[in-house]
Each structure stands twice: as structure tokens, then as C-alpha cells.
Amino acid sequence: MSSILIQNGTILDPSQKLERKGDLLVRNGKVAASGNNLGKADQVIDARGCFVTPGLIDIHVHFREPGDEEEETIASGAASAVAGGFTSVCCMPNTKPALDNEAQIEFVFQESERVGLANVYPIGAITKSRAGKELAEIGSMHRRGAVAFSDDGVGVADASVMRKALQYSKMFDTVLMQHCEEPTLSGGPMHAGLMSTTLGMPGVAAEAEQLMIARDLLLNRTIGCRYHVQHISTAWSVELVRRAKRDGQAVTCEVAPHHLLLTDESCRGYDTNFKMNPPLRSAADVAACIEGVKDGTIDCLATDHAPHLAEEKELEFQNAPFGIIGLECALPLYVKALIEPGHIDWMRLIELMTSASAAIVKLNKGTLREGADADVTIIDPQRRWTIDAEQFASKSRNCPFNGREVTGRPIATIVGGAVKWRLQ
After folding, report:
1. In the predicted model, what is the mean pLDDT of residues 122-131?
2. What is the pLDDT, as a whole number, of residue 1?
3. What's the rounded Cα separation, in Å, for the pair 22 and 85?
4. Sheet strand arrangement including 56-61
């Protein structure tokens, strides 16, 4: 394999608590050295004015294959990932059929290898067909390489099934990711509050998320499974996780850009690009999520990248599907939400998008240590640009941030020692 010398950048590696100007040498798919005067290489990239970081990692994406390839495929999703600076992503099992057996897990790995862009890791379903009734083949999927288990899109409503899932996950030392939504309090297209009443639409109560988190934490007190709350969105949800951490529970959680930047006020125009699950919440919930990032209650940042066809999103608000795409604009959106207001610095942001994410699913990624896989993202923190969903590599265009001016952008993405994307 060829060698790459990345020169004149600022190496930012939270896994080593390292921030220094210098060069990074990549050879034979591995990080060979960092420092100065590293010799020659087959390819030289000038990273002057840029951060050189471990490749970004997203543990929550939807690539729709198999079943809805017109919305996204592993190939188009991986292309979208590298365009956003992500070198590794974990895809959810709500495909058709669901990723609920080892053959489906193997398919994701094979397709990821065939495409040869970002590393795509499958997350297996907790229950067969994600129906919430009978446990899927957790053991065999884990042995085949599933990095976590989730029924994302729906929560496991049956407490007895959830207890068994926690026990099995503990047995295999894998992480169980829960879409926290109590179904009897769900069913609406947006957050239950003043805005839903004003718009005349049924709402999803904040308690729908909070009740399931509370139940699962109670079930897990004596089991001790590694338990992960997906796309956390309410103030009391953050407080529940905070208290569980204080009690020593093995709980982690993630937050998405839209739950740090937008509120249910965005739904006033009935634009379905603002319809997502969990829904956009109140300003107080947004503030609590930001505080959760600041104090470490929220462990990592994820996109919940969820592609949909334009004709689906053109349905009326109540009938349109939930979800937005986000891989290609996540980084500057986090800059907008967290760095520009001074909540966290760049070192912490990169940690939340690399080593912290890798730790949750136990990926041997997220570092620029010598000998590590050469997954590298080069970021221009000062580059100003306008988000244009029409230019995205994704097959879908359902982005509520389309047209927004932002600052900060990846300029090159290196996966396994090879440049997979470079800003033109």
C-alpha cells in the first residue's frame, strides 16, 4: 500500500490527550509516526490551518439495505459518511428484512468490504423481526461481528423480553441500545406541548421516553448489562441517566445535532423535514441536552442519519415518515451547537465523535497512536460553507438544515491508509 504524509496540521487526538503542530505519516494502512521530519511518502497532503484527527465515528445510522435501497444503500451511505468525515459507522437493523440473524450481519460486512469506503459495522436486532416478542439470535450475531443490539425505530415494550435481552447482552459482554419510547404514550407526529396544541396535532409526551429509560435502568440494576440510550431528547431523560451514572450503573447515551439546535417551534410551518423520532422538544429540553454534553452525562454524538424518499416526505405532516439525513453536515452543526457558544472545545468535540463513540461499541478505532488503523479526518475549522442537500452523496435529501451557513468542514477522509474522499 502507498504511504501518505500529512504535513503542517495540528494533530488533535483525544485518546492521547495530544494537541500539537506537526506531521502524520501513514504507511501500509497504519499510523506509522507523528512529529517532524518524517521523511518522504508517495502522497503528501498539506493540512496547514487544519486539524488532523482520528477518523470520525457514528454509532447510529440507517442505510436501509436490504429492503429500501431506493432511499439509501450501504454504498451511498458509506459515500455520505466519508464526505462528512466519518470513517466508521454502525448501521441500525430496521431494514427489510431486519438484521436479526448471522446471515444478515455477514451481508453488511461483505457489502461494506465490496464498496470499500467507510467501515460499516452492523448492529443486530434485539428481537426477531424487531417485533418485540422473541429474542433474536444474539449469540450467533455477536460471534459473527455485530457490535451492538437494538430494535431501533421501536422500543422493546415487554418488560420480560427486555429483562432477557439485558441478561443475554450481559452474557456476551455486548451493548444493548434502546430506542426509548413507551408505545402507549406515543403515536403523534411531534412533541406534546403548546406547539402541538396550537397546530392541532397529537403529540408524543416526553414521558414516553423517560418511562422506558426509568424501567430499563431499574431492570438493569441487578443485571449490569452495558445499556445505551439512543438519541436522548428530554431534560428528565438526561437527569435519569445522570443519576444512574452516579449510582455506578453501566449506562451511556448519545445525542443528535437536531436535538441540540432545534425545538418544536420548527414544526410551525408543517415542514416534514422537521419531523423526527424522538421529536423536536422544548427549549428547556435542548438546554438540558447541552448541559448533559458539558458535564459528561451524554457520552457521544451521533447523527441518527435516516434517509427517506422525497415523495414520502411530501405527504402531510401526520402521514410523513420520521427522520432526517445528517452525515454530511453533522460536524459543522455540532460546531454551531457546542463550540461557537463556548460549551466545549475542539478537543472535547473530537473525543465525543471518535474515541468515546468507539468505546461504547468496543471498536479498536478512534486513535492516532502509532500502529493504529490509519483512519484519519482532516478538518478545516474555519471554512465557511452553505449546506446544500442537492450535492450530498446520500440518495435522499430530507435535511432540515439545507441552506444554512455553517463553519467547519472535513477536507479529506482517509480510511485504512487510503484517501476515500477529498473536498474539491
Report:
1. 98
2. 66
3. 20
4. 56-61, 86-91, 119-122
Inter-axis angle of helices 235-246 and 283-295, nearest 10:
30
* pTM above threshold 0.90: yes
**Distance (Å, whole) CA 232 – CA 328:** 21
Asked if pLDDT for residue 424 goes beyond 90, the answer is no
**What are the tens digits of pLDDT across the range 83-93?**
999 999 999 99
The topology under which CATH files domain 3-51+373-422 is: Urease, subunit C; domain 1 (2.30.40)
Can you give the residue ranges of every domain in the chain?
A: 3-51+373-422, 55-361
**Greatest C-alpha distance within the chain:** 66
224, amino acid identity: G
Contact 379, 409 (CB under 8 A): yes
Q: Could you list the active site residues?
A: 304
Side chain identity, residue 391: Q
Tell me, which fold does domain 55-361 have in CATH? TIM Barrel (3.20.20)
CB 84 within 8 A of CB 410: yes
Residues ≥6 apart with Cβ < 8 Å to 269: none
**Closest residue by Cα to residue 233 from 273, 179, 280, 268:** 280
* 13 class by beta-carbon count within 10 Å (0-12 exposed, 13-18 middle, 19+ buried): buried
What is the C-alpha to C-alpha distance for residues 147 and 407, in angstroms, rounded to an integer?
33
